[in-house]
Amino acid sequence: MQPTATVLVYSDNAHTREQVRLAAGRRPAADVPPVEFLECATLPAVLDALDHGGVDVCVLDGETAPAGGMGVCRQIKDEIFRCPPVLLLIGRPQDAWLATWSRADAAVTLPVEPVEFADALAALLRARLSVEA
């Protein structure tokens, strides 16, 4: 198992980024490595981080403005070679179809529910790390 996993968190809301960090904790599940967070508040910061590599999972806030997480997800799935899996934070359960349109690998609703979020994040980390192995 690798020593740590890097999780990129994109939201223009510092409180949402904090919810994500607290919900995941240091390790979202016993069978995945501890996580380090890379926080981004703007689209250029996200693209720069992904260009540098080393990101294992992206958590994108669908409610971020002006570049919402759904559009960012679709863009990075098109533009980033071997794009990391994306966990999309959506405002309403009815927005799940938009998460599918954006090609997100998983979606959870806001506000972040810790158990649901940690389970979804751990599943994406497992999938990503098994592919890299």
Q: Could you give the topology of this structure?
A:
Elements: E1 5-10, H1 14-24, E2 35-40, H2 43-52, E3 57-61, H3 69-79, E4 86-90, H4 96-101, E5 106-109, H5 114-132
Helix pairs in contact: 1-5
Please give a structural write-up.
This protein is α/β, with parallel strands linked by helices and 133 residues long. It has helices at residues 14-24, 43-52, 69-79, 96-101, 114-132; strands at residues 5-10, 35-40, 57-61, 86-90, 106-109. The protein has a five-stranded parallel beta sheet, with helices on both faces. Strand 3 (57-61), helix 3 and strand 4 (86-90) form a beta-alpha-beta unit. The protein starts with a strand and ends with a helix.
Keywords, separated by commas or semicolons:
133 residues, alpha/beta, 5-stranded parallel β-sheet, 5 helices, 43% helix
Question: Could you give a quick summary of the protein structure above?
Answer:
The protein is α/β, with parallel strands linked by helices and 133 residues long. It has 5 helices and 5 strands. Strand 4 (86-90), helix 4 and strand 5 form a beta-alpha-beta unit.
User: How many separate helices?
Assistant: 5
- The overall pLDDT average reads 95
Summarize the helix and strand pattern as letters.
Answer: EHEHEHEHEH
Q: Strand order, biggest sheet?
A: 2-1-3-4-5
